[in-house]
Amino acid sequence: MGDFPYMSAGETMTQAITAFGEVSTPPEPASDIHVMSIIGQIEGHIILPPQNKTTKYEHVIPQLVAVEQNKSIKGLLVVLNTVGGDVEAGLAIAEMIDTMSKPSVSLILGGGHSIALPVAVSCKYSFIASTATVTVHPLRLSGLVIGVPQTYEYLEKMQDRVIKFVSEHSAITQDKLRELMFRTGELVRDVGTVLVGVDAVTSGLIDEVGGLSTALDALKQLIQAKYSEAKVDNSVPQISKNKGAPLQ
Amino acid sequence: MILYTIVPIETVFEGSEKERNFVDIQLQGVTLTVEPLSMKEAVIVRVISTDPSHYLNPRFSPGRRLRLF
């Protein structure tokens, strides 16, 4: 924005050059469902090199505020395909989505690893594609690590924050999540578990196996339940289990 | 990251050492990440919006060149 010295006169100064070979889409009525895609690395305090695809804290947080405040927006679909990233940025996004008054539904596609899990469960209802995976593993420290017991205690504390949030927002217990996180023999030369689609549902982390239409249907149901005068509380309505239910 | 492609790894990462410079700008109220090509031109890299209709708007299509006055 302000980084462009020759752009200071504002957005009217920006103009498209090419105006040919282009199909114009007919004007659509504004959608009352907004989409937030969380892709690549979740970026926090440190700007990652440009070859990394990142979801930036400073982009996402104001968008969530805008979605919450805009009266014409009724619900939010959060699409996740991320390898994880900054713990505090991830938890911040999760807390923002959790405390939003509007219905939210998450959909994990491809992969929703590490810190993506709190973001996925922070929505009122969560879906995972049948081929998508969730990797649950212990937190890692980067940078200078001092070899003192306090380092371990600090890591433990950070881990507890994630475990507590996830267990409070999903059907999994803290003990079960801890067991998945520290399991050995599943990951090559590492500690943790990979949950593919239905495994994430049976473990209680994610609500349902689904896709785009099931996620949108669930969101529409949540919106209807919220905005119909019959129901005033903010509880999650039962979403039909026959569509997109885990195939056992 | 796991790649599953017939393209050799050297081709995939070709040019990744090149420094790329991205700038966020506002165009008609929509935040766009653009890559400046010169002092006068930039190419759209990414649309940053939660409104799905912005992604259908050809004005904001990634790859489109913008003239910066």
Residue windows where pLDDT falls under 50 for at least 5 positions of chain B? none
Write down the overall mean pLDDT of chain A.
84
CATH topology of chain A, by name, is 2-enoyl-CoA Hydratase, Chain A, domain 1
Main CATH class of chain A: Alpha Beta
| CATH architecture name of chain A | Alpha-Beta Complex
Give the number of domains of chain B.
1
H/E topology pattern of chain B: HEEEHE
Kindly state the percentage of residues in helix of chain A: 25-40%
Uncertain runs of chain A are 1-20
- Number of beta-strand segments of chain A: 9
The CATH homologous superfamily of chain A is called 2-enoyl-CoA Hydratase, Chain A, domain 1
Percent strand of chain B: 25-35%
Through-space gap between termini of chain A? 51 Å
Mean pLDDT of chain B: 87
The two chains with the largest interface, and their residue counts, are: A-B, 33 and 34 residues
Query: Helix amount of chain B, in percent?
Result: 10-25%
The fraction of residues assigned to DSSP E strands of chain A is 15-25%
Shape of chain A: globular
Strand order of the largest sheet of chain A: 3-2-4-5-6-9
Across the major sheet of chain B, the strand order is 1-2-3-4
The major beta sheet of chain A can be summarized as: 6 strands, parallel
